[in-house]
Amino acid sequence: MAISILPTRRNLRFKLDPAKALTWHRDGLNVSQFLNTMSLFFPVGERFFIDSVRNYRELVQDPELKKAVTAFIGQEAMHGREHDEYNDHVAAAGVPLKAQERLVEALLKQIQKRTPQSFQLAGTVALEHLTAILADGLLSLPEIMEGADDGYKAIWNWHALEETEHKAVAFDVYQLAVGTDDRLSAYALRTSTLVISTAVFFALFLPFYAHNVRVTGGLFDAKGWRSVLRHSLGKKGIFRYTAKAWLDWFKPGFHPWDHDNRQYLEQFEALLGDVLTDAA
Fold first, then answer.
1. Where are the alpha helices (DSSP H) in the chain?
2. Which long-range contacts (CB under 8 A, 24 or more apart) does 101-104 make?
């Protein structure tokens, strides 16, 4: 039976301590900067995702998918807003996140200018898969965030939960607008853009991250680098955990809810804790 999850738009604000922007993770600066650098991609990336789905909104006639698209847009807008504030704290601590963000934004604008809308939607679907499996890794490996500052831990858990909740929305629009895997062209576009998107993301992320660690004094912190390796590639590292899920994308007939992790959505409030400034 197909799984159908209707996302919910939530207007949540988080208590982030600016003084802890560089050291909010229990394991210190290098791990904090790993996640801080990842955060810089979200505001501009999510605006791109919203535009890519909006391009095909008129095609959506199913009432439930219409509601899901509206909620998807609302959730992504909230993610952008909260990560903008998060990124402001990191930038104020001396990290050039804003300059890096402008480079990402310029790249995405060129993609919008020079590629067909179907490619933009395929890229969105691919990156939604990447964020969904990383979100699942974060939720499935709670030791990664154990001992972290409550506010920063909550914003990452919130983002992971909502990425889980709406992980199939752009995919369902793609199948409607471009086609299912029964069409070789739709399958080829869907799978090739995951390879391209993953390669481009890490080609940007890794040098940004190395620079951000260097300018904040962590380049020669051997203990910090060991923590990064443990959390990323270790036995319970997030990249090792998500490798199979990444490869599952290439199975003909794949759907994001083939990875059924909806049990985490039942723990929404518990995973956020008491760190919200307001909710509506």
1. 29-39, 41-54, 63-92, 97-114, 117-140, 150-165, 169-177, 184-215, 222-233, 238-248, 268-272
2. 101/40, 101/41, 101/43, 101/44, 103/204, 104/40, 104/41, 104/44, 104/45, 104/204
For 12, the 3-state DSSP assignment is strand
Backbone φ and ψ for 245, nearest 5 degrees, come out as: -65, -35
**Contact (CB, 8 A) for 156 and 145:** yes
Residue among 44, 18, 24, 19 nearest 100 (CA): 44
What is the rounded CA–CA span in Å between residue 280 and residue 193?
A: 36
Residue 1: is its pLDDT beyond 50? Answer: no
Distance CA 87, CA 251 (A): 36
pLDDT tens, residue by residue, 73-113: 999 999 999 999 999 999 999 999 999 999 999 999 999 99
Token pair for 22: 């560089």
The answer to whether residues 172 and 72 touch, using CB atoms and an 8 Å cutoff, is no
pTM of the model: 0.95
Place of tokens 């909550």: 154
